[in-house]
Structure formats: structure tokens, C-alpha cells
Amino acid sequence: MELYDRPHSELSLPNLRPTDQEPAQDEQRTTYYDHPMVKSPLWSWYIPGYFWLGGIAGGAAAIGAVARLFGGPGGRETARHARYLSLGLGMICPALLIADLHRPERFYRMLRVFKVSSPLSVGTWILTAFGLVSGALAVHQAAEDDVIIRRESRLGWLARKLIPAGPLTALHGLLGLGLGGYTGVLLAVTAVPLWAAGGLLLGPLFLATSLASGAGALTLLSLAFGKRDRASEHVRGSIETVEMVSTASQVALALTRDALVTRRINKPLRRGLWGGVYRVGAIGGGMAIPLALRIAIRLLGPRSARTISGIAATLALLGALAERLAIVEAGKVSAKDPLAYQELTAGAPGEARPTPREQALSAPKTPAFQPRIAASDTLTTSAE
């Protein structure tokens, strides 16, 4: 018998369970034959990869902008690393996004409009502007470093004179903050229970992760290619402080979100594969251990500080990847659970639909219909 051929009385029956098993309290509520109430996203691994790399690029751009504008001579090295890193990741992110869209023209069509009320539209423009500004600053930096573009050539002179590095650096930092946080806002405005519940914290959580991972990437670049003079060491210490504060913010936001979201909705992040990835990989390996290592560096002093700092930065990067991957994939699992959606909407099936009386009270007040004589009838009567 098809679903639509079943009698109406079966629509309110609870889920049938074996007699030897007593249903849990949250499973006694009615569902529509256990069918999902919302459609699960069809995103592939490109999207969590884009969230991860975009977060690193955005966080590095924001930190590099502050280092260049307020870091003095030691901040130039950090700004150089941030500009080249932002350019490389800024070229990969659109490719991942377009690959998930399956049709490249869809990305172009999203640029035809700009809607402030749509995080997707705003995020598309942020990504595009971020790529253009990253390219301009990378060209300016290459001319200053005499890399690829000769400093004394005509092209190098034009790049150094015509590209306003100061204003673009400030804009680059602001766009980096937007790129790091808008993806969390984008998830929060969907109907997926895991993303929508506690949605106000998802944007700040993604932004904190972006700053922590961006600081980790800049720390690794500084350890590998940076100088060892006093100015560079001072700026590196400031970056590590940013990473430590951002990681502490991650822990606070993650724990607050877990406390506010109900157990049923948050179940994919507490059990199963993605629950393990989130708990062990993101919170444990990506937040708690790097934070403990940073505190250990402060307590133990400079002894083995470079090695411990490199380990903490690597764990922060891997933890950011685990967080993005776990939240996206666990959201797909949450969308398939009708009971989770019921808890999100805080009502039983059909409860959100207003009654006929409520519809009548909320309907606009319009005057009753009154028949009138048409103009054509008047003309006909006059002619007769």
C-alpha cells in the first residue's frame, strides 16, 4: 500500500518498535513515517575544504593587516607571508566552490545581484573582493621583494606607485574577517537543525577558528622562513598570543553552544563518526592541546619553544579542518532526523499550522463584496 493510500487514522500512530524494547521518551512523538522534514544538503567535500582554506586565508589576512599597519619593522615579514598565503588560498577557494556548483556559470550568476539579507550573496562578493585585493597586494609585495617582478623595471615601478598598499591592507583585513566568519552565518540561517540551533554562536565560532588557524599558518611560515632577529621574534610572539586567545574563544563558544543545543539536535556531534571527529579532532586535538601547549611555553620559557610552537600551530590547523568537516557532515545527518526538526520548531507535526479561527483573525480587514452596476450597463441603458 502506498503512503498516500493509508487511512488518515494511521497518520498519528507512533513509530512501531519490537515488543521487547520500550521506546525512548523522545521517540514516542509522532513523525510522518520517519521521513525527513527538510532536505539534506548535497554538498561534497569541496565545501568543508572551502570553509577550511577560506578560514585560514581570512584569518591570516586579518593578522597580516594588523601586523603591517601597527607592527613596525617586524610586521613587514608577517604581512609578506600573509599576502602570499592569501593569494594562494584565495585562488583555490573559488575553484572548490565552483567545483561543488557543477556548473561554473552559477558562480557568475550569483555576482549579478547583491542582497544584504542573503549571507550567500554577501559571502560571494566577499570572496570575490578578497581574491582581487589579495592579487593586488601580492603584486605590490612581489615588486618590493624583487621576486618575479623586477623592482626597478617599469612594471615594478608601476606596481609600487599605483597600487595603494595602505588602504588595500586595511580593506584586506576587513575582508579577511568577513571571509572567516560569514560561512558560520550561512549555515545558521538554514533549516538544518544542527546548524540553526544555537546559530548565533556559529558565526563567532567560525571566526575564532579562522583567526586561530590563520595564526597557526603564519607561525609555521615564520618558523620555516622567518628571521631570528628581535623584531621578528616579538611579532611571532604576538601572533602566538592571538592564536592562544582565539583558541580559548573557540573552547568557550563550543562549550556554550553544546550547553544551549538540545541533546537530540546535537546528537550527530556527540555520537558516531562525526561526533568522534568533532570531540577528539576539533575540541581535543585542535583546541585543548594547542591551548595547553601555549600555556606550557609561557611557563617553561624559551627552552624548546620553537618546537612546541610548531606542534601547537599544526594541531590548530588540523583541528580547524576537523571542526569544519564534522559540523558540515553532522548537519547532513541532523537534516535526516525528523524528531530533531520537531525540536527545532518546538512543536508537534501540524502544530505550527494556524487554526481556521486564527487565520480569520490574522486576515486583513477588507470590506465585504458589494455588487455594482458596470459602466457598460449604464451606457447600454442610456442608449436605449
What is this structure's SSE topology?
Elements: H1 46-70, H2 75-101, H3 105-110, H4 119-145, H5 154-162, H6 165-188, H7 193-196, H8 199-225, H9 230-260, H10 272-300, H11 305-335, H12 338-345, H13 356-362, H14 375-383
Helix pairs in contact: 1-2, 1-6, 1-8, 1-11, 2-4, 4-5, 4-6, 6-8, 8-9, 8-11, 9-10, 10-11
Averaging pLDDT over every residue, what do you get? 82
Topology-level CATH name: Formate dehydrogenase/DMSO reductase fold
Radius of gyration: 28 Å
Class derived from helix and strand content: mainly alpha
CATH architecture: Up-down Bundle
Shape: globular
Number of domains: 1
| Percent of residues in beta strands | under 5%
Order of helices and strands: HHHHHHHHHHHHHH
> Number of helical runs?
14
| CATH H-tier superfamily | Formate dehydrogenase/DMSO reductase domain
Helix share, percent: 55-70%
Please report the distance between the alpha carbons of the first and last residues: 67 Å
Q: Would you report the number of β strands?
A: 0
Largest sheet: none
At the first level of CATH, the class is Mainly Alpha
Low-confidence spans: 1-28
Brief write-up:
With 384 residues, this protein is mainly α.
